[in-house]
């Protein structure tokens, strides 16, 4: 070991020592209890990469399940969620519209479409997508802004006793790294970080750089209940190699000291995570994914492919049985370039027989195709949902029924993901209310007044903390999807044309620039209604001025 890793004992208070011990004790328990779920996730990842444990050494694996996963993710990308702020009181109506712009601003700078794609990949494959909402002090040139990140569920450890992570004793987010990396980013603990045994079990042991050691940075989120104030405080601590790096509760490593987070990290009192679960598991924090449902079917398809491959390999080789002492030169028989072979005898069939593998029963081929078709049908990714032909269906109503059958499953999962998105948006609003300074100007692109760059002073209607508590935002978060497939675009445009016709018949035609702006953006009913309302108000104002 290099001398730079000769550890010294960290000087901590009794309260900080207790925190470190509690962190490792609780993390060890979560680590053991969630071992089976994480192992299932790793196996699902392997199957996603077509690296199944029981795969054939010669036959290629089928891509049927992988294709279903791709199409399921694509369906959810088409249904990208969007938040609509509905004011709960009349005086918050204007602020609700502003918050829609601010929320779009936050998600844009967080790279939300890419993060959502990663969340959908994690949810469909492993069963759970994990998103974290936090105040990032480094964003906006150091002024800070809310940020969201997607974290792989294999490196996330919620309380295994509770289905709702907010009810648990804590949540752990881990990063597998090295001692040098930790000491470089936390110089105040240099020489105090050790290597540890928590490593990626699914990967072969990798060697750290010369003189370095592997270690795990553990981020521990936990709650403290203040009985006097009847409120819950959420705190965060970071440890690595048995050393305390950061603690919001004790002020260790915090530039502002213990008083910086005396009311917790976030006044909403929640763990800053939301889980996008593909399918719930009773009394378990993690869900199951599409691969969990169809892993056995995919393995059966691969077995049938192996049977076909083995038969093809055997059928391609003729085996010759030659009687010993028959006088036939076996090397001449094996040499396929020789067309004439002489021997002394009568009927060659008495001393030489050629055998070739019989072709497989046709049921093997049919069974493999049947398993693949059933998988597509059951998961909602049938040929018509995937944009393929086939199934020998020609009637328009029958084709529509098959498309609708796949759409039902997609819509069901979309509704589940929309609820997780709503939880994420509410946390964003809470964090904005707590950390965004009043009167701060934001440069907003788009919004209700068109697509130009605008400077807006954001006035948040959500009340500030009272007695250390932060009430819920003064909006009802309604989630809708931004449908981006061609069929939905056509339907939205038809709806818009009907609105244009109605307005023209009513004597208040929409201006061409408004129609073009709506067609270029998202043609939601809310946006169309606001455009019609603004046009009516403008028409009434003009009539009043003319009178």
Keywords summarizing the entry:
547 residues; single chain; flat; alpha+beta; 13 helices; three-stranded antiparallel beta sheet; five-stranded antiparallel beta sheet; 18% strand
Task: Please tell me about this protein's structure.
The strands form 5 sheets. This protein has a 5-stranded antiparallel beta sheet. A 3-stranded antiparallel beta sheet has the order 3-2-9. By secondary structure, it is an alpha+beta fold. It starts with 13 loop residues before the first helix and ends with a helix. Helix content is 42%, strand content 18%. The protein is flat and about 120 Å long.
Principal-axes geometry comes out as flat
- Number of DSSP strands? 14
Structural class: alpha+beta
The fraction of residues assigned to DSSP E strands is: 15-25%
Strand order of the largest sheet: 4-5-6-7-8
Percent in helix: 40-55%
The count of helical stretches stands at 13
Largest sheet: 5 strands, antiparallel
User: Can you write the helix and strand succession as a string?
Assistant: HHHEHHEEEEHEEEEHEHEHHEEEHHH
Q: What's the gyration radius in Å?
A: 32 Å
Average pLDDT score = 80
């Amino acid at each position: 070991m290099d001398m730079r890793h000769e550890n010294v004992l960290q000087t901590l208070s009794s309260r900080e020592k207790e925190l470190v011990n509690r962190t490792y004790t609780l993390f060890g328990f979560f680590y053991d209890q969630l071992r089976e779920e994480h192992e299932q996730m790793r196996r699902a990842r392997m199957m996603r990469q077509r690296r199944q444990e029981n795969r054939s050494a010669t036959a290629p694996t089928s891509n049927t399940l992988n294709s279903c996963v791709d199409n399921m993710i694509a369906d959810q990308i088409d249904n990208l969620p969007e938040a609509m702020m509905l004011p709960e009181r009349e005086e918050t109506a204007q602020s609700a519209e502003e918050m829609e712009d601010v929320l779009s601003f936050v998600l844009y700078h967080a790279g939300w479409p890419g993060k959502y794609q990663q969340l959908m990949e994690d949810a469909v494959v492993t069963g759970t997508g994990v998103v974290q909402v936090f105040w990032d002090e480094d964003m906006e040139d150091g002024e800070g802004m809310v940020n969201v990140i997607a974290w792989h569920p294999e490196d996330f450890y919620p309380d295994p006793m509770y289905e709702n992570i907010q009810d648990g004793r804590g949540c752990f987010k881990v990063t597998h790294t090295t001692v040098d990396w930790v000491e470089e980013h936390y110089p105040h603990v240099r020489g105090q970080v050790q290597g540890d045994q928590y490593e990626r079990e699914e990967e072969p042991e990798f060697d750290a750089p010369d003189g370095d050691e592997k270690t795990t940075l553990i981020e521990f989120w936990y709650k403290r209940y203040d009985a006097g104030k009847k409120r819950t405080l959420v705190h965060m601590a970071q440890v690595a190699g048995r050393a305390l790096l950061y603690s919001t509760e004790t002020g260790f490593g915090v530039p502002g000291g213990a008083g910086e987070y005396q009311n917790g990290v976030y006044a909403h009192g929640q763990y800053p995570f939301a889980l996008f679960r593909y399918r719930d598991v009773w009394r378990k924090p993690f869900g199951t994914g599409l691969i969990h449902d169809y892993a056995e079917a995919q393995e059966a398809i691969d077995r049938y492919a192996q049977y076909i491959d083995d038969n093809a390999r055997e059928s391609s080789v003729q085996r010759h049985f030659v009687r010993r002492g028959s006088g036939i030169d076996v090397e001449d028989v094996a040499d396929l370039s020789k067309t004439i072979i002489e021997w002394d005898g009568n009927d060659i069939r008495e001393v030489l027989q050629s055998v070739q593998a019989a072709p497989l029963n046709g049921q093997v081929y049919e069974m493999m195709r049947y398993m693949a078709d059933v998988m597509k049908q059951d998961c909602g990714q049938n040929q018509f949902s995937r944009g393929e032909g086939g199934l020998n269906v020609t009637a328009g109503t029958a084709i529509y029924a098959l498309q609708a059958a796949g759409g039902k499953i997609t819509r069901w999962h979309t509704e589940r993901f929309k609820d997780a998105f709503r939880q994420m948006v509410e946390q964003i609003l809470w964090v904005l209310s707590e950390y965004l300074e009043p009167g701060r100007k934001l440069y907003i692109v788009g919004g209700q007044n068109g697509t130009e760059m605008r400077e807006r002073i954001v006035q948040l209607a959500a009340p500030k903390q009272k007695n250390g508590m932060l009430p819920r935002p003064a909006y009802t978060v309604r989630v809708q999807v931004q449908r981006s497939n061609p069929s939905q675009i056509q339907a939205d445009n038809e709806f818009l044309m009907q609105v244009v016709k109605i307005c023209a018949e009513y004597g208040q035609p929409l201006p061409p620039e408004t129609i073009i702006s709506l067609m270029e953006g998202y043609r939601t009913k809310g946006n169309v209604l606001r455009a019609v309302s603004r046009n009516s108000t403008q028409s009434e104002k003009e009539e009043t001025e003319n009178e």
